[in-house]
Design a protein that fits this description.
45% of the residues lie in helices and 7% in strands. The chain is mostly helical. Helix 4 crosses helix 5 and helix 9 packs across helix 12.
């Protein structure tokens, strides 16, 4: 309980600071300008190899990290590519890492926090320091995306004469990774053939309303997986919801139980999914996941997982405002529950960080 309290309070603190320094608003404005100038692509199309792997964890779940923005950066790069390029067009970097209209401009962060004083950086230094911090985050994301492995790397970063990384000249790879050939598999915008087959779609509002900036990596991964399942079993998604049991979740995606369950609960709180209640469930029909992962159907078993339906209507809301409301409500519940667990405790209620 204490861990949940502190984690939620820390998230509220960061969110409150991002709203205070208008980091999310500014990043959303940059993405809106990019989207308007690029013909307003909607939805954004993502190839499913990013999510699924035959023998090991997917590239997606390798990017679920407690620190860094690697998953967020890759999705933003895909968004940028589809705003700028036509179907089938190869990717080439045209943006600097820092400055107006740069990759750093697409990222929202809270800033440097001093745990000793429980304060953020002084306002006089905030603008310049935030730009430097965003640049550091972008470079860290590129190192992480390149470090997935020679074949799985989602970017390549060339080296200079002395072996230093030339971040400005990075190249974006397809969702399936760099590949095993000498020539890297550069990112191209999916064609109609791809769009009709092994892809999932992401509404543009996910980027334009700030969800990409404020959701945790595990929440983004959970949401993408649910979208993938809804694409592979559309009728079941509409009528009774989709699910993912433990074995395919851990073997195919590498998602731990707590990451999946907490991700689904937060997405439910934020209004991005809803719980479905299929009538008369006696076991689990795993045909959808068997088709999805090219595995033989397993025997039915008496286990009733949660069934979910993705609700895109929630994406149209301001993400930062929605999270502020829901996380403050959760903080009050966590604080009250913790107080009630200690007999005779009469400590005053702690003010939630987002309420300051």
């Amino acid at each position: 309980m204490a861990d949940a309290q502190e984690t939620n309070a820390r998230r509220l603190r960061r969110l409150a600071q991002m709203r205070k320094n208008e980091s999310v608003t500014q990043a959303c404005n940059t993405l809106h300008e990019m989207w308007e100038a690029g013909g307003k692509p909607d939805p954004i199309v993502l190839r499913s190899p990013l999510l699924a792997a035959a023998e090991e964890r997917s590239r997606l779940t390798k990017l679920i990290l407690p620190r860094g923005i690697a998953l967020r950066f890759y999705l933003l790069a895909v968004f940028e590519a589809q705003c700028r390029l036509g179907a089938g067009a190869p990717w080439k970097n045209v943006r600097p890492l820092k400055g107006v209209g740069s990759w750093s401009d697409l990222i929202a962060i809270d800033g440097a926090y001093d745990t000793a004083t429980n304060t953020y950086m002084p306002a006089a230094f905030r603008s310049r320091k935030l730009e430097d911090l965003r640049l550091g985050q972008v470079k860290g994301a590129l190192r992480t995306l390149e470090g997935l492995g020679e074949e799985d790397a989602l970017v390549t970063v060339p080296r200079g004469a002395r072996g230093q990384r030339l971040y400005e000249s990075f190249s974006l790879m397809k969702e399936s990774g760099r590949g095993g050939n000498q020539t890297p598999d550069l990112y191209t915008v999916p064609t109609r053939q791809w769009q009709a087959a092994k892809t999932i779609t992401i509404p543009a509002a996910f980027f334009l309303q700030g969800w990409i900036q404020v959701l945790n990596p595990s929440e983004i991964a959970t949401w993408l997986i649910l979208r993938m399942l809804s694409k592979w079993a559309p009728r079941k998604h509409r009528t009774s919801g989709v699910f993912l049991t433990a074995q395919p979740r851990t073997q195919t995606f590498g998602l731990r139980d707590d990451a999946w369950e907490d991700g689904c609960q937060r997405l439910l709180d934020f209004g991005l999914i809803r719980r479905a209640e299929p009538p008369g469930i006696q076991g689990v029909d795993e045909s959808a996941t068997s088709l999805l992962f090219s595995q033989p159907a397993r025997p039915r078993r008496r286990y009733e997982p949660h069934y979910w339906q993705v609700t895109d209507e929630g994406l149209d809301k301001d993400a930062a405002a929605k999270l502020d409301r829901e996380l403050n409500l959760r903080q009050r519940v966590l604080d009250d529950t913790a107080r009630n667990r200690v007999p005779g405790t009469t400590a005053p209620r702690r003010q939630s960080p987002g309420a300051q």
